[in-house]
# Entry
Amino acid sequence: MHEILSPQERIKKKRDFLLIYRRGKRYRGKYLILIYLPNDLKFSRMAVVTSKKIGNAVKRNKIKRWIRTLYRRNKKLLKNSLDLIIISKKEIQEASWLALKEEYLTAIKSISQKNQTG
RNA sequence: GGAGUAGGCGAGGUGGUUGCUCCUUCUUCUCUUCACGAGGAUGAAGGGGAGGAAAGUCCGAACUCCAGAGGGCAGGAUGGUCGCUAACAGCGACUCCGAGCGAUCGGAGGAAAGUGCCACAGAAAACAUACCGCCCUAUAAGAAGGCAAUUUUGCCUGUCUUGCAGGGUAAGGGUGAAAAGGUGAGGUAAGAGCUCACCGUUCUGGUGGUGACAUCAGAAGCAUGGUAAACCCCAUCCGGAGCAAGACCAAAUUGGCCCCGUUUGAGACGGCCCGUCUACAGGGGCGGGUAGGUCGCUUAUCCCUUUGAGCAAUCAAGGGGUUAGAUAAAUAACCACCCCCGCCAAUGCCUUAGCGGGAACAGAAUUCGGCUUACGACCUACUCCAGCC
RNA sequence: GGGCGAUUAACUCAGUGGUAGAGUGCUACCUUCACACGGUAGAAGUCACAGGUUCAAAUCCUGUAUCGCCCA
# Structure
């Protein structure tokens, strides 16, 4: 019940993407790049970006599913409401499920800490 | 063991936790209407949820919009024959040619309508001229031989060499991818389809076949090299763009058009009022149309099966089925048990325990029919070659 | 999703069946006290890949790969 990812919680419009790319802060990891910007809504929103460099459609779909599952499971960690774009890097082809999970958790923790202090 | 062809299948099964999308039914709330009702949100239950290639976008259609009297030109596509199909560059059967020991595979109109090209080499690359060569005739010189003569010399020739002229030839000629029917015999001054036999080619006729073509007989001595995935000719077909097509609803803002603009704002006429005019504030309406949304959107030239026709592709009739509809784009993550395969451990076998694996190519985007490309873990059938018994 | 196009030397490009070229760059030598400019010479290519047509393919035909452009 608390791990739902409804359509409202996803970034869909090109205007929103451009705004977040321009104003957002960035976190770089080994496999992922996260761009985040606090919003005025009562809930957080997210989007996943996988470029064609990563592979064919099957590989890209699998990575998007992994990242969406990670976001759903760990929504509690985001205490403030944020707009979040998750971009996958080329190195993600060699990543396993567990490695990706660890990287995502550390990234989210650092983001939420910075957001609270700053 | 190797090879070939045709076909099937395409992440083993059950359960659980979290979670996505669509449909149906129900509950609660909200909006609107006189009412029937309609839309949205939340929750619950049930059900459906990627492929053989979904791919490349190479062909053909359906469907939509645009253009369009009719016809032609240009341009493009196809190309053995007959059939199947809504259509196709697809499929089936057959014909001929070629490759392979073979199962089998590949190719296919016209070069005698015309134009172009055929580098290098070669005599010549397409009116068969002509170079070398071969041969005949005439002639000049030389040699040889013979005759006459004292010698110089003169005359003669079924002889030889060289030159020149006229003619006959296409047998032979380093080449080249390709050289003007091939082989053999006769024939001739030398040669030549010049003549003959066989093979090949072309034409005519008969027979068989719907036809491509096959076969038999006769004739022509043979004239016509290759290239049409060069231009071209012949036959048949083709308007263009594509679901981001297209249709509908439609916020905000700017601009446009129409009406009102009064008993109340502004300006003009006027000394003032009434009144008239302007249409600047302001108000109302209209249409186009952006963001956004809805439809198109999944039942269609469909799938399965039985019978009949046909060698087959396929067709006809009957019965049954409904099988994704997303839009920053839906199938995932983890766990447990069973099943199968492989490895290791105590000795050959069994059993038990442990570890690893259950794939590859790859993700619907309007929908079908094909083709091509990628993958082959697996399974089935048939066939060929080689080896052993 | 749907339409188009390109690929030739390190780079930018010619080359419309018959020996793969130009400019820039690179290397060596000359010139200069030295450098630049200039001059001479040279190297560098699986014509993206694979199959076919042809005597012969960068060129013609078919397929594959990579890169790019347009359409609400």
Observations:
- Residues 7-117 of chain A form a domain with the Ribosomal Protein S5; domain 2 fold (CATH 3.30.230.10).
- The CA atoms of residues 15 and 21 of chain A lie 10 Å apart.
